[in-house]
Amino acid sequence: MVTTLAALALATAACGAPPGAPGTTTVVSTSTSAPASTSGSTSGSAPAKRIKVPDVSGMNHQDAQDAMQRAGLYNLREVDGTGQGRALVIDRNWVQKAQDPPPGTEVDADAVITLTAVKYTDR
Known about the structure:
Blueprint: H1 2-15, E1 26-29, E2 50-52, H2 61-71, E3 75-80, E4 94-100, E5 106-108, E6 113-119
Parallel strand pairs: 3-6
Antiparallel strand pairs: 1-3, 2-5, 4-6
């Protein structure tokens, strides 16, 4: 529920930007609350798990998000690849054009993954 409300708030905020506003992006965090650590000590803790970023080039944006989440990456940032600053509201209407970091890069699980997409009608 909280994630849905946060996404709605972000979409509403993005809609308030004037058309063509430079640098307008939509940030979608789809992570669920992780259990709090029960350990009081941080010494000797295992290193953070590294995850290989999947290649989502040319994928439908919704499928690209799903692939990232299956890999364990939930900190996803969405960008309109045309530079118009549009919000990616209906994910299935968009296709992936770029991603950062590039496919195959190993990152921490909490790394920000930027997915750049355009509408199918923009191609």
